[in-house]
Amino acid sequence: MKMAAGIGIMLIIVGLIALAYQGISYTTHKKVLDIGPIQATKTEHKTIPLPPILGGVAVVAGVILLASGRKD
To answer: The whole model's pTM is what?
Structure first.
């Protein structure tokens, strides 16, 4: 059951990161104007929110997997 323990540790780490950051941010660049040598671009910052319950569920699932891996 070492694989379950490894997956449990990874879930705990991912869950704690999700609780700490509460979202994934990224930037996109869009071309607004393109007239010959003249170009204008627009930079947009977007965020994908991660609900805290998702991080909590990942941490709890990781602890359960870690505990079940230790029993065997």
So the answer is: 0.66
Distance of CA 35 to the CA centre of its chain: 39
Measured CA to CA, the distance from residue 4 to residue 37 in angstroms comes to 58
- Please give the tally of structural domains in the chain: 1
Answer whether 65's CB lies under 8 Å from 11's CB: yes
Q: Which helix (H) or strand (E) holds 39?
A: strand 38-49
Q: What stretches in the chain show pLDDT beneath 70?
A: 1, 71-72
**Which tokens in the block code for residue 40?**
């204008």
Residue 36: give the domain boundaries: 2-71
Contact at 8 Å (CB) between 70 and 62?
no
CA–CA separation, 72 and 70 (whole Å):
6
Neighbours of 8 (CB within 10 A): 22
